[in-house]
Amino acid sequence: MKLITYLEDGREKVGALTADEMSVRPLPFPDMTAAIEAGRDALVPAGEPVGLEKVALLAPIPRPRQDVICLGMNYLDHAKEAAQYDKEAFAREKPVAVYFSKRVTEAVAPEGYIDSHPGLVEKLDYEAELAVIIGKTAKNVPAEKAGEYIFGYTVLNDVSARDQQTGHKQWYFGKGLDGFTPMGPCILTADEVAFPPALDIACRVNGEERQRARTDGLITSVADTIAELSSGMTLLPGTVIATGTPAGVGMGLDPPRFLKPGDVVECEIERIGLLRNTVK
After folding, report:
1. pLDDT (tens digit, 9 = 90+) per residue, 218-237?
2. pLDDT band for position 16 (50/70/90)?
3. For the domain 2-58, what is the CATH code?
4. Are 133 and 153 in contact, with CB atoms under 8 Å apart?
5. What are the residue ranges spanned by the domains of the chain?
6. pLDDT tens across 109-122, in order?
7. What is the mean pLDDT of the chain?
8. Calpha distance 126→104 (Å, rounded)
9. Homologous superfamily of the 68-279 domain (CATH)
10. Element (H or E) spanning 33, and its range?
11. Which residues pair with 51 in a beta bridge?
């Protein structure tokens, strides 16, 4: 099942896409977090299909209840290119997960705009990522049971201001500016793919492919991530975990190639869909 959040007649709604993905059937929940808390068995559409041309697609979770949890340098090739760009800022001395949080006032919709923050940001970058959505309260979850706590998956672009990120020697500000979290186009429920998910992931800028990998190439797996995080913090339903990005980001190119207003960034993951955004 593919779930979306959308605007119809000025009202925010949640729904399930029809099999042909041309229409949406509304679900009886006020928002996506409520739908997630109800569980997959409760996702029974209650209403007639509405054509997607009649609605405006929003990020599937427009306002996450907590900051997005992110993994840094979680593909080997990306860890190497990051260290080459700035060894002091990105070198990994120990084989442990790098976690940080991403502040999200409102996630950017598919086809929405990435704010370039002129005057503040000079080195704007993209990062295509698989995002995991937690489906039920997770505390002290063993890795072998982690899949039972996943509601679904979506595509997330971890937009980054590299100058702010490296200049501050920490990542919160450079990753958490307004308009830095495009998400969507939908949530693919976890029952639609085998666990752990092994899906093609790619990113294109103005039609040029920059990133391509498989989501089973993570250094720290989805299961180990959930197990480690839940050993010390409670993960609530609707928690978003961005699992890291493959090689090919702008700072990793030679010479580096950063985003500028007018650029179109397309992040795509097999089975989930395409997240397209324009820099303004």
Report:
1. 999 999 999 999 999 999 99
2. very high
3. 3.10.330
4. yes
5. 2-58, 68-279
6. 999 999 999 999 99
7. 94
8. 16
9. Fumarylacetoacetase-like, C-terminal domain (3.90.850.10)
10. helix 32-38
11. 23
